[in-house]
UniProtKB/TrEMBL annotation:
<dbReference type="InterPro" id="IPR001763">
    <property type="entry name" value="Rhodanese-like_dom"/>
</dbReference>
<dbReference type="InterPro" id="IPR050229">
    <property type="entry name" value="GlpE_sulfurtransferase"/>
</dbReference>
<keyword id="KW-0808">Transferase</keyword>
<protein>
    <submittedName>
        <fullName>Rhodanese-related sulfurtransferase</fullName>
    </submittedName>
</protein>
<dbReference type="GO" id="GO:0016740">
    <property type="term" value="F:transferase activity"/>
</dbReference>
<dbReference type="Pfam" id="PF00581">
    <property type="entry name" value="Rhodanese"/>
</dbReference>
<dbReference type="InterPro" id="IPR036873">
    <property type="entry name" value="Rhodanese-like_dom_sf"/>
</dbReference>
<feature type="domain" description="Rhodanese">
    <location>
        <begin position="18"/>
        <end position="99"/>
    </location>
</feature>
């Protein structure tokens, strides 16, 4: 059973709109990100997370995103196993963001 905490795209949007500082990590491949991304999101493809973990601040609330929410959930599990406690997976990924926010 996964212990990943999920967050709804509208919650992410409202927090950003309200000025809350969120660290958003997009684990999609660069070609996918070129099609559209959340403003301020940092792209670290899923396969690079282990080597680039130092680029993620463990003290900040972090929202992991991908296309549909699957890869970002895997990234959350990896980071949680490495000791990160403030990571959340955005439900539905960019598919949901595009449908519900944009």
């Amino acid at each position: 059973m996964s212990s990943v905490i999920h967050i709804h795209p509208l919650d992410v949007y409202e927090r950003m709109k309200g000025g809350q500082r969120l660290q958003i990590i997009d684990v999609r491949e660069p070609g996918e990100v070129a099609a559209g991304k959340i403003p301020g999101a940092k792209n670290i493809p899923l396969g690079q997370i282990p080597m680039r973990m130092s680029e993620i601040d463990p003290s900040q609330e972090t929202v992991m995103i991908c296309r549909s929410g699957s890869r970002s959930a895997m990234a959350c599990e990896f980071l949680m196993a490495a000791g990160f406690t403030r990571v959340k997976n955005m439900l539905g990924g960019m598919n949901a963001w595009t449908w519900e926010v944009e």
